[in-house]
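INFO  loader      accepted 1 record
INFO  loader      residues=360
INFO  predictor   begin
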Amino acid sequence: MPFGILVYRFDEKAGMKVVTRYPEDITVDDKTTMQIYTAHAFEGEKGFLTVTIADVNIASYFTGQESNYYICLLLSIDENAEDYEDILTDSVRTIMSNLEYRRYMQMLPDLYKKIVTYPRMTREQHLALMFLDPVKKMILDRLIEDGSATKTELHSWLKEKLAKEELDIDAILHSMIKMGLIVESTLKETPSALAFLVGDIFTTRVPPVKIINAAKAGNFPGYLSNEYLADVKAFFESYSPTPEDQEIVLKVLTNMDAFRIIERLREEPIRQEDIEKIKNEFEKVEATLKWLWDAKIINVLRGKTGQEVYFLRSDVVVKIVFPEYLINLILESYNNGTKSNSVLIEHLNVLKDTFYNVYA
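INFO  predictor   done
INFO  writer      dumping C-alpha cells
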C-alpha cells in the first residue's frame, strides 16, 4: 500500500527540493532523492518510471525540463509500482494544471486518497474514472465524430482547447489503449501514429435482476416484495438516461463506499441492524446511504416492526461497447474523400480484429 506522495522541483542552484508532501511527516533521505533524479535523467525525457531503492518501491513521474517537477509515490516493497501508472499520470496532470497560487497543495490529500484506492477498484470503476476525466472524454468525443486522428493532431487540438493543461499525449492515449478504447497504428503516409477508436463507453441504470427475481420468488416478506417490485417498475417506466444522470452514475461508481454498498445490495437487501454492524468498514456510511437515496439508487422500505430495509432500486452499469456506428462514418468519409483510403482500410482492419478478439 502507498504510504506517501512527494512533489519535488529541481532547481539549478538548490537541486531537488520538496515543495509539498502528504502525509506531512513522511521523509526521504538525500540518497534516495538523488537516485530518483538520476533514474529520470538516465531516461532523458518526461514520463513515468518505477525504481526500487532499498525496501521502497517508487512510482515517479517527471514533467520535463520546462517545468522540472517530480511527483513520487512511495510504496511498500511488495507493491507493484506499475499498477499506479495511470492514476499517478492523471494526478500529475491535475497538479500541473493547478500550479498557480499553489492550488495543488490543497488538492494533494484528495488526489492521494484516489491514488491509494485505484488498484482496489474494479475494471468497471476504472472505466467510470476514465469517462469522468475531462481530457480523455474530449478525446473520446473527438474520435466518435472523426473515427481516427494522428497523435500530433490530437495534441495540437488539445493544447488549443486547454492552454494551461499539462499534456502528455502518449501517456493519455496509452491508458485508453490499455482499457480497449483505441488502437494505435502507424502508416507511412501519416506524420505520426494514428489513434483509431475501437470501443465506446456506455453508462446507464439497469434493473437489479437478482433482487427482483428474489422478490418474485418470495424470498422477502410478501408486503416488502410487492412494495419493492412496484417501486422498481414505477422507476424504470419513467426513467430516461440524460447526461446529468450519467454523471451521477459515474460519480457513484467511483466512490468506494457507495460502490461497496451497491455490491452488497446486488446480493441482498441490508437491514438497519446490518448498517450498525458495518459502520466501521466505511468512512461515512449514513451520509453515503443518504446520497444513494437522493440519487434514487436505493430505496428504504419499512418492515412490520418499523425496521428500515435498504433495497437496490436501480443498479448502475458502465462498460465498453463495440462502436458499430463507425462503419457508417467510415463509409461517409470514403464517399466525401475526407480521409485517405489507406487510413479507412486500416480502421476497418483494427475494428474487425477488435470485434473478433473481444466481442465474437
